[in-house]
Amino acid sequence: MARILYSLAWWFATPFVLVYLLWRSRKQPEYRQHLSERFGFNYPPRLEGRLIWIHAVSLGETRATQSLVAALRRSRPDCSILMTHMTPTGRAASNELYGDSMTRCYVPYEYGFAIRRFIRHFKPALCLLMETELWPNLVAECQQARIPMVLVNARLSQKSLLKAQRRSALIQPAVQALTKILAQTKADAERLLEAGATPAQLQVTGNLKFDVSIPPAQLELGQSFKQSIGTRPVLLAASTREGEEVLLLDAFKSAVLPGGVLPANTLLWLVPRHPQRFDAVAEMISAHGLSMQRRSSGQQVASETQVWLGDSMGELLACYAAADLAFIGGSLLPLGGQNLIEACAVGCPVLVGPHTFNFSQATDDAVEVGAAVRVTDADQLMQQSAALLQDPTRLKQMVAVAKQFSESHRGATERTMTILNVYLDENAIRRVQ
To answer: What are the residues facing 53 on neighbouring strands?
Structure first.
């Protein structure tokens, strides 16, 4: 009954869904593109061979697939890969990472007819859902079509668990319909059990993001950034979210004034998480009276520039490689934080705010070993940044610890592939009719 009501709600919400997409397209026109795919029509041609379907909702989940995709291609050269997304940002990231080597499209919304058309068109042999994506109708239709579904790199925060428990009549059957759940941490596994998973479904395999391979091109770009910036101290504010930039700019402006805690020539490198906000953040910087350059201009950073706005996509690893230290956004406000693993992988010391529930285990571990420092607010962030930037010995120690921390947690891809190969072998002959 819960899923019937849920399905009816989707039908009644259809006009609002369309209005939402049009509203989002004001700042991100890509939301108007490939609209029919969201309703089960006009999919790209299916590639030859058995199809492995990976669903990565947006940017972070898409980037987390890199080591897994590489391993699948080594282990299963006979298989083709389909990657689905929910956001244009995720789709653009997939195109940048993989180009024409795989098929990509939007996953259909929760209409039964759309999901069935999708399944008939692509005939996937295995579905891999990245991290937290769980759509009740999608899971139910795949179960009906006998498609194994594995929740890979699974995580569940306490906040998300409470939401799932409030909708347990809908969420619990979807969780229990999954073939396997590969959790990032023991804590994630325990919360997934509370959400309705069974012990037989669950296995802790680690976090795929620790297996990230830094492309040489990103390191080279990082070196070019360093040359552009010069010898100035650089504080990177990475993947900032709405509401955080104003806090950072207020604190930074005070910190670089005469008598402030930061060296006067410190460069704040501000990289908003969502591209549709680039222009709004640029206006915010100007309103603070801070001199600004945009990365997209391609010009060398001037000595008088106080804020460098990172308004280009696909360069965050290079930013980490070039910065002296990085604040990880989404953590000053109760938004759950973003992934700090890539910063650690390139040896960039990390600062995080108090709200890191989306990546609690990795963040807590990084803080415990000294690869990261936790701050309570933007003012303390500037104070800690000043202390680190003026203590080269400690900063150098944090660089080494960050790299060691990243290296010590590798291996999730191999553990994940051991399990996935079982399902690929079992489905070597089966086809979806």
So the answer is: 82, 127
Q: What CATH superfamily is the domain 216-408?
A: Glycogen Phosphorylase B; (3.40.50.2000)
Taking the chain (433 residues) in runs of 10, the rounded mean pLDDT of each run is 91 94 90 94 90 93 93 92 95 92 96 96 95 92 95 93 91 95 95 95 95 90 94 96 97 94 96 92 97 94 96 92 97 94 95 94 94 97 97 96 94 95 67 38
Distance of alpha carbon 184 from its chain centroid, rounded?
14
**pLDDT digits 0-9 by tens, 153-187:** 999 989 899 998 999 999 999 999 999 999 999 99
Q: Hey, where are the domains in the chain?
A: 23-206+411-426, 216-408
- Structure tokens belonging to residue 5: 């009501």
Residue 427: predicted pLDDT: 57
Q: Cα-flanking dihedrals φ and ψ of residue 124, to 5°?
A: -70, 145
Q: Which of 63, 80, 25, 146 is nearest to 433 (CA)?
A: 146
61, 133, 244, 342: which is the annotated catalytic residue? 61
List phi, psi (to 5°) of 199.
Answer: -55, -35
23-206+411-426 and 216-408 share one CATH topology? yes
Query: What's the pLDDT at 433?
Result: 35
pTM of the model: 0.85
- CATH class of the region 23-206+411-426: alpha beta
Predicted confidence at residue 430, as pLDDT, reads 45
Q: Is 48 a catalytic residue?
A: no
